[in-house]
Design goal:
Radius of gyration: 27 Å
Shape: globular
Helix content: 55-70%
Number of helices: 17
């Protein structure tokens, strides 16, 4: 909601947020059209009154923002600036409701094993909550309509989001190629001779999870599908196979330098940096500096090695492994992991599996991305700066 009023030579525009969440802070955007120097605004309008309480304004030339604490209940918000008063009734959304959309989406995906519909219903839940608190029960219907024209379209109308989608599609295409051309099967054939027993077999699965580092979902599908026959031959339970695959896929994708996960992270970091103008580093620099705090993925990968080396299992996993060692059927009846859905990862008939069919495309991705980063980010002034270390320059 915007207002425009004339006050001497200043034209004020006040934009209240459409959505506010209780127990948090929200921002009111201010803008002014003024013929004089911007310092006049900063000096004379450094604070505003919100519900009678002075709040500082962060001015950037002729526009500024002011934070205000959001009350828990529906109330009238009053802003006073330069002798003018602006009002709006706000209806805060309880903070705990933010858990519902992702929780519903996850539960539906687990129950029906179908992701697209679960995500859509999750978005609809969030849009309905927003619509209800903005316009009552009628707003829930508008929330359904806004799924397409507002939320999905606005998400797609973003360069960073499109870049992540294109990057993910490119990586997915490479995964499909190295699966169809026998490259993945060739890598497995290279590693399979080293799997003599359950311990070495689990290590090979762990190693495969590390090698397929560029996408966590592709890692899960490809490694799980290709290493399943090896696990069955060595009497490794399906439960342990799933645990090994899942506990390597996400952690390695979170810390490797070139992954679809990192592509998404860079988009989030870039959005966050907009709100922190004091940080002038690039999103990738921030990501690299954050790796030293990636305790979960690093410790998880190490923990998996410890479990494999010690051959220790606990609770239901120990029971599943004991059944597998004694050739008692484990949980292998889930449509055999739905072979029809994994057919795209099967090698084409008549193709001879060769490991270099996978190694070469993966190396092209890695070195291609590095070359692209150098070509687009090279700065001779930085590279010749003797005060910076080599890795800082990178």
């Amino acid at each position: 909601m915007s207002f425009g009023q004339k006050e001497e030579t200043i034209k004020w525009n006040v934009e209240f947020p459409d959505i506010v969440v209780s127990q948090t802070q929200s921002k009111i955007k201010l803008s002014a059209e003024y013929d004089g120097a911007p310092s006049y605004l900063k000096n004379n309008y450094s604070t505003v009154l919100i519900n009678g309480i002075a709040q500082p304004v962060e001015w950037d030339v002729f526009s500024g923002t002011v934070n205000f604490p959001v009350p828990n209940n529906r109330s009238l918000l009053t802003l006073e600036i330069g002798g003018q008063t602006f009002k709006k009734i706000i209806n805060p959304i309880p903070l705990w409701l933010s858990f519902l959309p992702p929780l519903i989406a996850i539960l539906l995906a687990l129950v029906f094993r179908e992701v697209i519909s679960a995500l859509f219903i999750g978005i609809f839940t969030g849009a309905s909550i927003i619509g209800f608190y903005a316009s009552g029960f009628g707003g829930m219907f508008l929330g359904f309509l806004h799924i397409i024209d507002r939320y999905i379209m606005n998400a797609l109308d973003n360069w960073s989001h499109i870049a992540v989608i294109v990057f993910s599609m490119t990586i997915g295409a490479v995964v499909s190629i190295i699966s169809k051309n026998g490259g993945m099967r060739g890598v497995v054939n290279r590693l399979e001779p080293y799997a003599h027993n359950p311990r070495s077999g689990q290590f090979v699965i762990w190693l495969m999870g590390i090698l397929i580092f560029f996408d966590d979902y592709a890692n899960t599908l490809v490694v799980g599908n290709t290493m399943r026959p090896v696990a069955d031959r060595l009497n490794i339970s399906r439960e342990k196979l799933a645990y090994l695959v899942d506990s390597t896929a996400a952690p390695v994708a979170a810390i490797a330098f070139v992954t679809t996960w990192i592509g998404a992270e860079l988009g989030y970091i870039e959005s966050g940096l907009v709100e922190i103008p004091q940080i002038t580093d690039t999103p990738y620099t921030v990501f690299l500096n954050s790796l030293s705090f990636s305790f979960y993925p690093i410790f998880t990968l190490i923990f998996m090695l410890i479990l494999i080396g010690k051959q220790k299992d606990f609770g239901p996993m120990a029971v599943a492994e004991l059944k597998a060692r004694n050739n008692v059927d484990s949980d292998k009846t889930i449509d055999d992991i739905q072979e029809d859905r994994l057919s795209e990862f099967n090698m084409k008939k008549g193709v001879t599996p060769r490991s270099y069919n996978a190694v070469i495309p993966i190396l092209v991705i890695i070195f291609g991305v590095i070359a692209g980063m150098l070509a687009t980010g090279y700065n001779s002034e930085i590279w010749n700066d003797q005060s910076l270390s080599f890795f800082r320059k990178l």
